[in-house]
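Shipment paperwork, digital attachment
Item: protein structure file
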Amino acid sequence: MKREIITTGDGSVTIYLPEMKESYHSKFGAIREAYHVFIQSGLALTKGQPIAVLEIGFGTGLNAFITYLETVKTGQQIHYTGVEAYPVVSEESLQLNYVTELNAEKQKEDFEKMHISDWGEPVVLSPDFTLTKRQQFFQDIDDNEVFDLIYFDAFGYHYQPELWTVDIFKRMYASLKKEGILVTYACRTVIKKAMIEAGFTVEKIAGPPGKREMLRAFKS
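Attachment content:
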């Protein structure tokens, strides 16, 4: 399948799949979307406590990188697990301009490590941030009460509805600790209903640029 590197509305790039008419991030701004959906609407609620994060769709590594940069600023301790079935290849990772756009030249080597590190092996990027990448289908996730926060960043429902089912969200619910949080850019009614059926308490909140609303879910 053809893949292209394109520039989004805030100057940061993303990967675009022409056959799917789908991109890894919002065309209105990859970095802007990541900060709004996952940092401001998710990580900020953890109030700087040591946590474990699960990302559904590691992709370009943008969400992991900005989370790492947050730990550089705050000292919050994070164990980060990124799940991806089809990893980005090295040639693509070299074309991602996130280090420059985030003014993170000091962390350039750490971003590179995120992509070249072995799958399934923890890599310590700092005393406060450890990354483990898992090459795995989302349907095979079977963690039990491991994570405090989930970044749910799968491809859109219109292309892969099988990634937004009750079964998937039951797996997410099981993987979270009590009072855990799940955030996603999506806001379809069918997705909200699947989350509720899986056991979550769900709320609609303001979405990132270009999107009116998004979903945030809690495990009681």
